[in-house]
Design goal:
elongated
Length: about 90
Amino acid sequence: MGFLHGGVIYSLADTNMGAALYTAMEDDELCVSIEVKINYFSSVSSGRITCKSKLVHKQGKIAFLESEVYSEDGRLIAKATGTFYVFKAKKS
């Protein structure tokens, strides 16, 4: 249809929030998304997109993050928030 599918933008935001959370986790911890909400503001038909995510709050096993996706020319394409569950990795 000539523009980037919203699912790609969602996946980028979700993955980027997980990566941002990893910087605040212990070496033996993993995380999974519990819930992600995204709002789309503009479409993208060409060029690169970038994603910036930040940890807003982490307490115990729950973390809350925000993510913004921008077009190559700096337009805000989408904003997402996510709740993640942090847990200890199983030892093999």
